[in-house]
Amino acid sequence: xxxxxxxxxxxxxxxxxxxxxxxxxxxxxxxxxxxxxxxxxxxxxxxxxxxxxxxxxxxxxxxxxxxxxxxxxxxxxxxxxxxxxxxxxxxxxxxxxxxxxxxxxxxxxxxxxxxxxxxxxxxxxxxxxxxxxxxxxxxxxxxxxxxxxxxxxxxxxxxxxxxxxxxxxxxxxxxxxxxxxxxxxxxxxxxxxxxxxxxxxxxxxxxxxxxxxxxxxxxxxxxxxxxxxxxxxxxxxxxxxxxxxxxxxxxxxxxxxxxxxxxxxxxxxxxxxxxxxxxxxxxxxxxxxxxxxxxxxxx
Length: 299
What we know:
Number of domains: 1
GO cellular component, one term: plasma membrane
Number of strands: 2
Keywords: Cell membrane, Membrane, Transmembrane, Transmembrane helix, Transport
Pfam family, one: BPD_transp_1
GO biological process, one term: transmembrane transport
Radius of gyration: 24 Å
Family: Belongs to the binding-protein-dependent transport system permease family.
């Protein structure tokens, strides 16, 4: 066996475990999900008739149940994305700047403090914030009562339900974005700031003309990952508001799972999931194009 061929074979062996995991846990489920979406796939039935694109057509046909279910959940999801993603980016960057401004001995401590909630499970997160937001016995309404103020229906009325979900999401996930931004800020050369100081630039000019352009690729990464994560929101509304009040906070992923495991309609549920995935891909591409386009125009 020639050395070059042996080297290629050895390289293939190294990627084989990842390739097998990729095919088993990602590629096969995607292909099987597409297959299911093209069939009348009732969970309790042994006969799954091929229906082609009918499940997709029903979603876009006004007046059908799946049309109402899909777009009602999509609107709730889009609202959450619009509210949460800017806050996840701005707050994550703000915390990173604050942590980097601390004395070196305290930075590791505060990084850990802000990152710890990200390591908690969804159930633990829900228990903590249910104790905070509960209308009758929650900490916040108890505090308001001591101040002789009226309690707030945090989880049972809008817009307070959205406020509760966004605050919970920020507390639970902001540590990840903060760590990413901290690493990005540490990669900005100190020479740039020193040269700017010599030229008389203030803190805002340094931030706007040195920090932001230098961390632009990381900003794009955080924006796309935050958008994908926000579109896939499930645990917070399911555990805190149960989709209420009414269906106001019942996001698309909750409707997909209800369609699949409550109504037992896996075919239409898979079609909804596929459309959701395509929408996320399109939005991510648009974000990437807009961000890189601005960068090219600026240069």
